[in-house]
Amino acid sequence: MSQEISKLSIGTVGSNALLMGDFQERADVMAQIKESAIDHLFIADHVSFHDGFGMDGLINAATLAAMNPDITVFLGVYLLALRHPVPVARQLSTLSLSAPGRIIFGVGIGGEDRHEMEVCGVDPSTRGRRTNDCLQVVRSLLSGNSCTFESEFFSIQDAIIKPAPKPQIPIMIGGRSTAALKRTAAYGDGWLGVWCSAKRFKQATEEIELLAVEHVREDLAWKHGLQIWVGLDEDKHKARAILAKEMEAMYKIPFDAFEKYSPYGSAEEVAEFLLPYVENGAKVINIKACASNPAYEVEKVSKICELLKSAL
Length: 312
What we know:
Layout: E1 9-13, H1 16-19, H2 23-34, E2 40-43, E3 46-49, E4 53-55, H3 57-67, E5 72-79, H4 85-98, E6 103-108, H5 114-119, H6 127-141, E7 147-150, E8 155-159, E9 171-174, H7 178-187, E10 190-194, H8 198-211, E11 225-232, H9 236-251, E12 264-265, H10 267-279, E13 284-290, H11 294-311
Parallel strand pairs: 1-2, 1-13, 2-5, 5-6, 6-9, 9-10, 10-11, 11-12, 11-13
Antiparallel strand pairs: 3-4, 7-8
């Protein structure tokens, strides 16, 4: 596994099998990942999602990075609007010292659970504007320069965070809305699509690169990606049942709402579904695999990596 995002980087989620319970059992799962074709791990972030569920993305990213000194860890996605940007910049700077070149900072606005925003003192209707402000501040601070910033949400005078990460931490923006595409064009190094067709993926990335011209951001080496839930089992009906159960438990919405963009079945069937996204420019794929056990998930995501890369 490379320390950097390769031409096509495919990752699996840093699941509870890596983060909780007996350390030796967790180390065994990490050892399986290390020997697999999987390129990176990604980790979600929530403060209090639907009845209190959550995980701190930056803390878990640090844990995963420490467990494997070669793995890249992708925060996919961090709810930046729920935090003050200055301490977040400090956390990223600190993490970059122990895992230089191995962190990718994915940012989203959340919103599936309005109460999660409210308990953090954030008006859900402002989360997009807050995220934009936070991105400006974090980007400025991670350059190592002094940052002064005034907005409806923040008043920051002469803030400095050192050392600046070397190499710089890539920032990818998640979301499906037009606002998310504009946010990527203004502040991101790439877009992280979710629940969209391969055709829409290509259209969205082309829109972003046109919009970036307005921000005088024309020479970026864009790294666009896709985050996707998949169900894995040789029995397609069983794969669907496992996937539906996990997604409904997470989002409190019937699986029918996700099914069109959430493949299930064998590794070969899932790879066939994903190939058009790769052909349309996806350089990063985050696979949230749902299967009968963690070892099977790693085995099959690794197989998907091999199939997709061999098809290029």
